[in-house]
């Protein structure tokens, strides 16, 4: 859920973890509701600044953050050396154009609705620099372009059993 320029809430469900990222323009919080732990850091700025700081300081990469930058088209198409339309596919009940883009060390696929508003419904990024071909896959569902969001949605409030922990900062040797 995004409210530009400086509010985001991202919920990540995976096989290994369930995490919720909160940013309200002043505080960045990452919560693990299953383990009942969270970490918070003061962080002022917009979404782009926040994504850069948490990546460079804590090694945290938000899934599909590429799509949330104000200049996402420019960033995504930078250094592209190949592009292909793979066809039409259904994502849920939406007919989408399936596109593939390649650039050095990474490829990404995006499924965009064939009718207006042209929105992304799936996004897959693959690291092609190793034989493992590690990928992030994101489904973007429940689009609401006029949701009437309120500030509390982006501010983490710990529950009574939640324990505060601290972020581990990455060092130069970890990069």
Summarize the structure.
With 175 residues, the protein is mostly beta strands. It is 10% helix and 40% strand.
Q: Helix/strand/pairing class, anyone? A: mainly beta
Helix share bin: 10-25%
Measured distance between first and last alpha carbons: 29 Å
Total beta strand runs: 11
* Main β sheet profile: 6 strands, mixed
Whole-number mean pLDDT = 90
What is the general shape?
globular
Give the uncertain stretches in residue-range form. none
SSE string, helix = H, strand = E? EEEEEHHEEEEEE
Query: How many helices in DSSP terms?
Result: 2
Question: Strand percentage, roughly?
Answer: 35-45%
Q: Give Rg in angstroms.
A: 17 Å
Strand order of the largest sheet: 1-2-3-4-5-11
Word description of this protein:
The structure is a single chain. This protein has helices at residues 47-58, 72-77; strands at residues 2-3, 7-13, 18-23, 27-32, 37-42, 82-91, 94-103, 106-113, 120-127, 135-139, 163-164. It starts with a strand and ends in an 11-residue tail after the last strand. 10% of the residues lie in helices and 40% in strands. The protein has a 6-stranded mixed sheet, with no helix packed on it. Strands 6-7-8-9-10 form a 5-stranded antiparallel sheet, with no helix packed on it. It is mainly beta. The longest helix has 12 residues, at 47-58. Strand 4 and strand 5 (37-42) form a beta hairpin. The protein has 2 helices and 11 strands.
């Amino acid at each position: 859920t995004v409210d530009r320029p400086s509010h985001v809430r991202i919920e990540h469900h995976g096989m290994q973890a369930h995490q919720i990222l909160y940013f309200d323009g002043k505080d960045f919080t990452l919560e693990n509701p299953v383990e009942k732990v969270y970490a918070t850091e003061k962080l002022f700025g917009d979404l782009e600044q926040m994504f850069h700081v948490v990546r460079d300081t804590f090694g945290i990469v938000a899934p599909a953050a590429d799509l949330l930058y104000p200049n996402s088209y420019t960033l995504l198409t930078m250094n592209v050396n190949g592009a292909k339309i793979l066809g039409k596919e259904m994502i849920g009940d939406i007919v989408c154009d399936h596109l593939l883009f390649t650039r050095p060390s990474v490829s990404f696929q995006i499924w965009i609705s064939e009718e207006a508003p042209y929105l992304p419904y799936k996004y897959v990024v693959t690291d092609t620099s190793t034989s493992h071909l590690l990928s992030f896959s994101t489904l973007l569902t429940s689009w609401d372009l006029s949701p009437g969001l309120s500030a509390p949605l982006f501010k983490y409030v710990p529950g009574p059993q939640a324990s505060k922990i601290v972020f581990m900062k990455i060092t130069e040797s970890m990069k």
